[in-house]
Write a structure and sequence with these properties.
The protein is α+β, with helices and mostly antiparallel strands. The chain has a domain of 85 residues: ApbE-like superfamily (T-fold). It is 36% helix and 28% strand. The strands form five sheets. It has an eight-stranded antiparallel sheet with strand order 1-2-6-7-10-15-16-17. Strand 13 and strand 14 form a beta hairpin. Helix 2 runs antiparallel to helix 7 and helix 7 crosses helix 8. The longest helix is centred in the C-terminal third of the chain and has 25 residues. It starts with a helix and ends in a 9-residue tail after the last strand. 38% of the residues are buried. The structure holds adenosine-5'-diphosphate (ADP) and magnesium ion (MG). Magnesium ion binds next to strand 10 and helix 8.
C-alpha cells in the first residue's frame, strides 16, 4: 500500500515538473539584416532563454558566411579567389572548395544555366545606381562566362581560373547554403520545430506544432499580394524573381539573374519557386529554372524526383509542376 502511495506521489511530482517545464517552452524568434537580406529565425524551445541563445548562434553563422562569401568585402575568401585564382592554382578552405564543387554540379545538371562565372560580367552591374555594362563590353567578355573555366584540384584543395578576368559569385547558392547550415545547428541542439529564412530562401524543420507552416509566393508585380500560399512541413523553398534587384531603362528591365549565354538578364519569367529537401538545392534550382525559362525549366523540375515548382511567366500566368497536379498549390 505504502509503495503504491509513493509511486503515485512520485508520478504526481514528475507530471508537475513536466508542466512547469512546458510553461517555459515557447516560440522564440529573431530578425536581422545580414548577407544583404532579411534573416529570420523562428523556433520552438523548451526554455525560452536557451532558445534565444540558439537564435543568436544561427545569426552568427550567417555573419561568418557573409564574411567569407561576400563579393563586397575585400578580405572575404571569395574576393581573394577573384583576385588571385587566375594567376595560379590557389589553396582554398574545404568549405569554399565544396561550395564551388556543388555549384559546378548544378552547372552540369542545368546545362550551364547555373554558372557562378556569370560574375565575370555580372560584377559590372550596379542595380541600385542603375549602372550596366555596354553591349560591346558584354560581347567582348562573354567567353569569360563558362563554368569550364574553373579548375578544381581535390588533392591539393586548389582552384584555378583558366582565363584572366574570370570572376565567380556565389549569390545564387550562398543564402540557401547558409540556411542549411543554420538548420544543421538547430538539429544539433535537438530542435524539432523551426523556420529559417534568408530573403527568398527558407527551410522548415518539422511542422508548426500540429499544423503545417504556410509560406507565401509573392505576386511579382504586387508587393502586397501573395500569388499562392503553400502548406509545408520539413522542406525547403526558394523563390527567384526579377523584382528583387532591378532597374528599368528604355522599357527594359535589368535585373540580377543573368543568362550565361547572353551575359544579360534572363527575360522570359517573373518568378520561379522551387520546393525541395534542402535550401542549397532549392536556391540553386530556382536561379537555374529562372534562366532556363518555362519549357526547359519545367522539364527539369519534373525530371527531378525530389523537387516541385511554381513558375510565374512573363504574362503573370502560374504554371505548376506535376507534383501539384490535381488540386494546384
Ligand atoms: P536572391 O539573391 O534574390 O535570393 P536568387 O536566388 O534568384 O536571388 O539568385 C540571384 C543571384 O544569383 C544573383 O544576385 C547573382 O548573385 C546570382 N546569379 C545570377 N545569375 C546567375 C547564374 N546564371 N548562375 C548562378 N548564379 C547566378
Ligand atoms: Mg537562387
Amino acid at each position: 500500500m505504502r509503495t503504491a502511495f509513493r509511486l503515485i506521489l512520485l508520478l504526481t511530482v514528475l507530471v508537475c515538473l513536466a508542466c512547469l517545464q512546458s510553461l517555459h517552452a515557447a516560440w522564440v524568434s529573431g530578425e536581422e539584416a545580414i548577407m544583404g537580406t532579411r534573416i529570420s529565425v523562428q523556433l520552438w524551445h523548451q526554455e525560452k532563454d536557451r532558445g534565444e541563445a540558439v537564435v543568436q548562434a544561427v545569426m552568427e553563422e550567417f555573419r561568418r558566411l557573409d564574411r567569407k562569401l561576400s563579393p563586397y568585402i575585400d578580405s572575404s575568401e571569395l574576393s581573394q579567389v577573384n583576385r588571385l585564382a587566375s594567376l595560379e592554382p590557389l589553396g582554398i578552405s574545404e568549405e569554399f572548395y565544396r561550395l564551388i564543387e556543388t555549384s559546378l554540379e548544378y552547372s552540369e545538371l542545368t546545362d550551364g544555366a547555373f554558372d557562378i562565372t556569370f560574375a565575370s560580367i555580372g560584377h559590372r552591374y550596379d542595380y541600385r545606381k542603375g549602372i550596366r555594362p555596354t553591349d560591346s563590353l558584354i560581347d567582348r567578355t562573354l567567353p569569360l562566362i563558362d563554368y569550364r573555366n574553373i579548375h578544381l584540384d581535390k588533392d591539393k584543395s586548389t582552384v584555378f581560373f583558366e582565363k584572366k578576368g574570370v570572376r565567380i559569385d556565389l549569390g545564387g547558392i550562398a543564402k540557401g547554403y547558409a540556411v542549411d547550415r543554420g538548420i544543421e545547428l538547430l538539429q544539433q541542439q535537438g530542435i524539432v520545430h523551426a523556420l529559417i529564412s534568408a530573403g527568398g530562401d527558407s527551410r522548415l524543420l518539422g511542422d508548426h506544432r500540429g499544423r503545417p507552416w504556410h509560406i507565401g509566393v509573392q505576386a511579382p508585380r504586387d508587393k502586397d499580394r501573395m500569388a499562392a500560399m503553400l502548406p509545408l512541413v520539413d522542406s525547403a523553398i526558394s523563390t527567384s524573381g526579377d523584382y528583387e534587384r532591378f532597374f528599368e531603362r528604355d522599357g527594359v528591365r535589368y535585373h540580377h539573374i543573368i543568362s550565361p549565354k547572353t551575359g544579360r538578364s534572363a527575360d522570359t519569367l517573373q518568378s520561379v519557386t522551387i520546393i525541395g529537401p534542402n535550401a542549397t538545392r532549392t536556391d540553386a534550382l530556382s536561379t537555374s529554372v529562372f534562366v532556363l525559362g518555362v519549357e526547359k525549366g519545367m522539364a527539369l523540375i519534373n525530371r527531378l524526383e525530389d523537387v516541385d515548382g511554381v513558375i510565374i511567366d512573363g504574362d503573370g500566368e502560374m504554371i505548376t509542376s506535376q507534383g501539384f497536379a490535381g488540386d494546384g498549390p
